[in-house]
Amino acid sequence: MKEKVDLPGAAVYGPYSPGIKFNNSLWLSGQISPESGENIADQTTGSLEKIEALLANAGFTKKDICFVQILLDDIDDFSEMNRVYQQWLPDDVCFPARAAFQASKLPADAKIEIIVQAMR
C-alpha cells in the first residue's frame, strides 16, 4: 500500500507529496532549502536535514539510500556541495549511486535540489 511521508512544518512548493513509501521502498521528492541561507553549503545542509527527517519519519536511515540525484543552479558549486554531502554520510555507508548536473532554474531560487530513493 502506498503511504505519504510528510515533514511537518516544512514548506511544500507545489502539488506533490514530500515522500512516498511503498512496501520497502521510499521515494523522496526534490528537497530544497532556500530558507537555510544564500550559499550552497547552507542550502545543501538544509536540504540534507530535510531528507534525514523524511527518512526517519518513514522508518529509514541514510544507510538505506540507494540513489541520489542532485540538481545545481551552478555546476561551479559542485565541489562545495560534494564536501557537505560527504560529511553528511556516515563513514561506514556504501555510497549511493548518484547523478549531479546543472539545472537552469530551480524552484524558489534554490541553489540545489536533492532527490532520493531508498530501499530496505
How would you describe this structure to a colleague?
The protein is α+β, with helices and mostly antiparallel strands and 120 residues long. It has one domain (2-119): RutC-like (60s Ribosomal Protein L30, Chain: A, 2-Layer Sandwich). 24% of the residues lie in helices and 31% in strands. The chain contains two helices and six strands. Strands 1-2-3-6-4-5 form a six-stranded mixed β-sheet, covered by helices on one side. The chain is globular and about 40 Å long. The protein starts with a strand and ends with a strand.
Shape: globular
Q: Could you tell me the number of beta strands?
A: 6
Strand order of the largest sheet: 1-2-3-6-4-5
Based on the structure given, which CATH architecture is correct? 2-Layer Sandwich
Unreliable runs: none
Percent range for β-strand residues: 25-35%
- Cα distance, first to last residue? 16 Å
The name of the CATH superfamily reads: RutC-like
SSE order in H/E notation? EEEHEHEE
Q: Which secondary-structure class do the elements indicate?
A: alpha+beta
Total helical segments:
2
Helix content: 10-25%
Average pLDDT number: 96
The level 1 CATH classification is: Alpha Beta
Specify the biggest β-sheet.
Answer: 6 strands, mixed
Write down the domain tally.
Answer: 1
Rg (C-alpha, Å): 13 Å
Fold-level CATH name:
60s Ribosomal Protein L30, Chain: A
Which quaternary structure do these chains form?
A: single chain
